[in-house]
Write a structure and sequence with these properties.
Elements lengths: L1 H15 L8 E5 L6 H15 L4 E5 L6 H10 L6 E5 L1 H5 L16 E16 L7 H9 L5 E4 L2 H13 L6 E4 L3 H9 L5 E5 L4 H5 L4 E5 L26 E9 L4 H15 L2 H9 L3 E2 L4 H19 L2
Parallel strand pairs: 1-2, 1-3, 5-6, 5-7
Antiparallel strand pairs: 3-9, 4-7, 4-8, 4-9, 4-10
Helix pairs in contact: 1-2, 2-9, 2-10
């Protein structure tokens, strides 16, 4: 843990050293410093710095990421080098309780670069020695259990998963964040949860909790190679993973976004960037801007369909 904190502090200092220089790229992270999205932005910016680019990171937290996203979309209409860090859910699936604060529509967003992904994993207390098949059979048998949920959208996915297995007896508890979920699973207060691997990689490698299954699509992460894949026939019908991408307003020009995409793509090729992302349980992405836009469009349709069920 001390190494992780020191690593993140070094990233903060590296970024702040460029604060008074003209930026080739500015990334607005709509969450506080120290989180996974912030860490990804700073790791990538460090890689860009090695290539001679000046990247500035701004943190604008509030309303589950909506405050900063609103500001960034408004500013990218005039600030050509500003991008916003988002997850797919933040961009395409707005939870009802914050919908009134959202000042943009999905068709006002433009994909720039998918930087990295981290698979969703089904976690349990390490004392739970049941096999994958036994756990799925417990769900199918309508056994009364409890699930932790890290977000509103995660709750919808989990309820969908349980409904597909015919389980109406398991309670889904909304935590609004993965950290306390991991703590409660380790402490035995929660039976199961779906969380991003990036939120629990350290505890898993340290033997503090168990990963029962990995959701699709699953990247090639060495620590997960012997963990079962959550089978679609067992109820998980939605591709689900944590992702770290950058968007802009549709007002941003294609030519300028191509230049920013190249900075990011070159940064992701740096071996130190890939290595530092991997330490956090995150895999760098090779997806192009066009492919990322297609993914966001598909997620928008899929989530809309999911929320109607």
């Amino acid at each position: 843990m001390k190494k992780t904190i020191g690593f993140l502090c070094a990233l903060l200092l590296t970024s702040s050293a460029y604060a008074n220089k003209e930026a080739d790229l500015k990334i607005l992270v709509p969450f506080p410093p120290g989180g996974a999205q912030d860490a990804v932005a700073r790791i990538v910016s460090t890689g860009a710095g090695k290539l001679g680019h000046n990247v500035i990171i701004e943190n604008k937290p509030g309303a589950g990421g909506i405050t900063g996203t609103n500001e960034c979309i408004n500013r990218t209409k005039t600030e050509k080098n500003l991008l916003c860090m988002v997850s797919q859910a933040q961009a395409v699936a707005i939870q009802p309780e914050v919908e009134q604060f959202v000042q943009y529509r999905f068709d006002q967003l433009q994909a720039v670069k998918l930087l990295a992904t981290s698979p969703m994993v089904l976690i349990a207390n390490p004392k739970n020695s049941k096999s994958y098949d036994e756990i799925i059979n417990d769900f199918k048998g309508n056994k009364k259990l409890n699930f932790g949920s890290a977000s509103w959208l995660n709750t919808q996915h989990t309820k969908h998963f349980l409904r597909n297995l015919g389980n109406s007896n398991t309670e889904v508890i909304d935590y609004r964040g993965a950290n306390q979920i991991v703590t409660d699973v380790i402490g035995g207060n929660l039976d199961y949860a779906f969380v991003p691997y990036s939120a629990t990689s350290g505890q898993f490698i340290g033997g503090l909790l168990r990963i029962v299954a990995v959701c699709t699509p699953r990247p090639n992460i060495e620590a997960l190679k012997n963990i079962p894949t959550l089978n679609i026939k067992d109820g998980w019908t939605e591709s689900n993973y944590a992702d770290f991408g950058l968007i802009a307003s549709v007002a941003a020009t294609k030519e300028n976004l191509q230049a920013l995409e190249k900075i990011l793509t070159d940064s992701l090729k740096e071996s130190s960037v890939r290595e530092n992302l991997s330490k956090l349980g995150i895999a760098g992405s090779d997806v192009s801007r066009e492919e990322y836009q297609k993914l966001l469009n598909e997620h928008n349709v899929r989530y809309s369909r999911l929320l109607k069920k």
